[in-house]
Amino acid sequence: MKELPTFPVRLDFSLGRPTARRPAPAAARSALRAVSQLPGGVAAQGHGIDSTAVRMNMVHKLAGQGISDPLVLSAMGSIERHRFVDSALVNQAYEDTSLPIGLGQTISKPGVVARMAELLRQGASGRLGRVLEIGTGCGYQAAVLSLLAHEVYSIERLRGLHDKARDNLRHLRLANLHLLFGDGRVGYAKGAPYAAIIAAAGGEAVPQAWLDQLAVGGRLVAPVAVGAASAGRQALLVIDKTAQGLRQTVLEAVHFVPLKSGVA
Ligand code: SAH
């Protein structure tokens, strides 16, 4: 039987040099320094894997793409993405690409996770309060969010992925991350109001429950369908809930799996 490659055998370090389309701003530079001093991510101890260098390259690229929130860069540098994908895919874990996680779903690109997290945080200096994530998937983004917020509630509608995320996350022992099994379109009222809501799956519109459960002063970031439904185009939507009402901003085009109803 052919042996599966062990991490990080086939990683191409030559691709990993910082692209630095823009020099990292001062805040990002100090976050990068802090990350580079980590012993190998919050979870590496005792596993004999050193993925720090390749993860640092990913963080440099994110800074080059314009991500500047030090907490986001630090979280992206800490969570070991290769632990959330199948062993056959670990050599691609730090590329800016989505990867299959089973049951027809995908782990989001690191660039998209970082972009959405930065939008959610709105430049806050400390951690966010309570955050709701719809679409736990393999649990990667939930782990990143748990370093950016005081409490994270993450909902998944597929039992198989809910269980997989639980397995993937066990070693991290993130006491502030709560995994829920259910239809995320109804949100999770018990944790409301949320400082931030983030969806990893895109629907035709944002469910009313999410808007109801968002705190005044809070922000929602979600992919939504734009244009003719048949065209299948999506854009990133930001909704700010203010005392005066909702303010919507449509940002760049994105590609997310569909937001579905019910559980399976
Ligand atoms: N953030 C995830 C990305 C997962 S892909 C990660 O880091 O891996 C999006 C996920 O949303 C899929 O697992 C899909 O099953 C889930 N999903 C789709 N509709 C949903 C719904 N109504 N409620 C909860 N999860 C949903």
Q: Mean pLDDT, as a whole number?
A: 87
Biggest β-sheet description: 7 strands, mixed
Based on the coordinates given, report the CATH architecture: 3-Layer(aba) Sandwich
Helices and strands: which structural class? alpha/beta
CATH class: Alpha Beta
Domain count: 1
In the predicted model, the low-confidence regions spanning at least 5 consecutive residues are 1-21, 39-48
Number of helices: 7
CATH topology-level fold name = Rossmann fold
Assembly annotation = single chain
Distance between the termini: 34 Å
Cofactors, ions and other ligands in the entry: S-adenosyl-L-homocysteine
Amount of beta strand: 25-35%
Estimate percent helicity: 25-40%
| Radius of gyration from CA coordinates | 18 Å
How many strands?
11
Can you list the strand order of the major beta sheet?
A: 5-4-3-6-8-9-10
Shape: globular
